[in-house]
């Protein structure tokens, strides 16, 4: 985790730095081209590729001539290129709040004015029939619960974030927004259809069921070409020391070294279980049902019953830490605490908050906005020892996890990209 500052309230993170420290280095062989002295520079959606030359497998990259070596017995030559990919920094250029406090205040005043006008109209109408009633604003239970929760954590969010933001401004990691920058800033143009993984999973549901042999783990080898059918509902591993690139539905994806993934519908988890591996940390970001998801039709959501069916007890190592991202809807928060974790025999140990800020240290939404808040929650729990797998080392003592810590960071402008949790605080 790229921690810029750590104080008692929590951490100020550099999400972009964390991604780029993964070192996406792709080794490729090419026939010599005319302009081999010039490094190439292209864009792949959210990743930016800077192609540099390397002497053999040396870690020192040199933007000059490439190393040539025999390609075959006939004496043909090839060049070894190391392509270094970095994340597009402009996707973290959040210079202004999504809704500024001034606009938020203006909306509030407009709503209050409209309410006042409505009151006048209603009172005039009621007086004509000899009755006069006082207008009563009624909130539903969900709204009342949300207001109560916000009141409870508001001071924690405001005070803790302010301390971390001040440190970020002092160190130069955050920069006050100049008036000139404010006027000149333009919205970021994002590529369309940058990720089709949800469509791939939906497509996989309609394919014939595969047998156990066909679902065996696929290990990516050198120059291994894979198709969409190859990766459906099976674990894909990159056990090499370098990044691998695969193309799915016309989009390029980078698989970091020593990593693996399972691309499937939530109902097809047995390939992961068949690997017989357990995990010390499991992070879950469920597609919660909400009005925004319904309107955008961006992806399908999971019902509470479907989320409960995720086989966490079979995937969890002894004392596994389970982390679930939760929206600000109290219904979802109660479900995780009162139903989901107990069904997995997971004991709640802490509740943390991700606070989203701009590059100048402002909240991305007004803190007291009734619609969207500048924070999200995550619930941390540990699998109870009695249901964890055996062979636990009794001498290993788990450090206590502090409650109500803040993770403050500039959010990625791509949809639903959460900040990194890997690092020294887990």
From TrEMBL:
Record's protein name: Methyltransferase 4, N6-adenosine
Single annotated GO MF: nucleic acid binding
GO biological process, one term: methylation
SUPFAM superfamilies per UniProt: S-adenosyl-L-methionine-dependent methyltransferases
GO cellular component annotations of the record: RNA N6-methyladenosine methyltransferase complex
Entry's family note: Belongs to the MT-A70-like family.
Source superkingdom: Eukaryota
Species this protein is from: Equus caballus
């Amino acid at each position: 985790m790229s921690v810029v500052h750590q104080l008692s309230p929590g951490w100020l993170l550099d999400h972009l730095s964390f991604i780029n420290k993964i070192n996406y280095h792709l080794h490729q062989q090419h026939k010599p081209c005319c302009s081999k002295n010039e490094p190439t520079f292209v864009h792949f959606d959210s990743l930016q590729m800077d192609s540099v030359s390397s002497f053999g497998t040396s870690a020192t990259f040199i933007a000059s001539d490439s190393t040539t070596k025999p390609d075959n017995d006939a004496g043909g030559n090839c060049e070894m290129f190391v392509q270094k990919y970095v994340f597009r920094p402009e996707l973290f250029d959040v210079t202004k709040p999504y809704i500024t406090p001034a606009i938020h205040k203006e909306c509030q005043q407009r709503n209050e004015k409209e309410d006042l006008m409505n009151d006048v109209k209603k009172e005039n109408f009621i007086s004509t029939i000899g009755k006069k009633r006082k207008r009563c604003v009624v909130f539903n239970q969900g709204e009342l619960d949300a207001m109560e929760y916000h009141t409870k954590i508001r001071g924690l969010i405001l005070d803790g974030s302010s301390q971390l933001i001040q440190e970020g401004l002092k160190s130069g990691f955050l920069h006050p927004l100049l008036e000139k920058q404010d006027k000149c800033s333009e919205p970021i143009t994002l590529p369309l259809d940058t990720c089709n993984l949800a469509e791939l999973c939906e497509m996989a549901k309609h394919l014939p069921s595969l047998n156990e042999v066909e679902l065996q783990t696929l290990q990516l080898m050198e120059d291994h070409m894979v198709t969409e059918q190859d990766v459906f509902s099976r674990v894909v591993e990159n056990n090499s020391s370098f990044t691998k690139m695969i193309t799915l539905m016309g989009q390029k994806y980078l698989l970091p070294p020593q990593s693996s993934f399972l691309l499937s519908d939530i109902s097809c988890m047995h390939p992961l279980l068949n690997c017989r591996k357990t995990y010390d940390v499991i992070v879950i970001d469920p597609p919660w049902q909400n009005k925004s998801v319904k309107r955008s039709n961006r992806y399908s959501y999971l019902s509470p019953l479907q989320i409960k069916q995720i086989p966490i007890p079979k995937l969890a190592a002894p004392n596994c830490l389970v982390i679930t991202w939760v929206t600000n809807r109290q219904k979802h928060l109660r479900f995780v605490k009162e139903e989901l974790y107990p069904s997995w025999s997971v004991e709640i140990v802490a509740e943390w908050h991700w606070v989203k800020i701009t590059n100048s240290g402002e909240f991305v939404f007004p803190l007291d906005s009734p619609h969207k808040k500048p924070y999200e929650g995550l619930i941390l729990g540990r699998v109870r020892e009695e249901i964890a797998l055996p062979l636990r080392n009794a001498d290993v003592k788990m450090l206590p996890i502090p409650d109500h810590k803040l993770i403050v960071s500039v959010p990625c402008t791509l949809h639903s990209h959460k900040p990194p949790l890997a690092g020294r605080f887990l």
